[in-house]
Design a protein that fits this description.
With 125 residues, the chain is of the alpha+beta class. The protein folds into 2 domains: 1-77; 80-125. Helices cover 50% and strands 18% of the residues. A 5-stranded antiparallel β-sheet has the order 1-2-3-5-4. A hairpin with an 8-residue loop joins β2 and β3 (22-27). α3 packs antiparallel against α4 (92-121). It is globular, with a radius of gyration of 18 Å.
Amino acid sequence: MWIYTTVGFFSVVQKKGQADDLLMVRGRFRGDLEALREAYLPELGAVTEYGGTDYAFRAPVTKVAFTRAMARIVADMTYDNFKNEVSRQQGPERARIYHDVWDVMFREQNRAERNARNRKDVPVE
């Protein structure tokens, strides 16, 4: 699961062979995992760096602790514009990166809407 937050971007998975109650929180930047630990998830395990992988930084955590952290993130939400809050907390460069992701998904939404409209125009035989 990809999670974009005001403290960082994370990919969270349950790795094969891990205990059922354990998740791996992966990130592109060590600072994102450290910010998550500091703000919401003190139970996050040690951050390990893996060279040559798609996510260079990884740390284990229990599902229970991760669930509580996500609930706290939602409970703390007061902003009405995510990208502006990211800029405030992480800086304009990170906000630009998040906007690039937003833009790709927005273009895909528009493409899907156009395709749906076009299908409605085609008579069904």
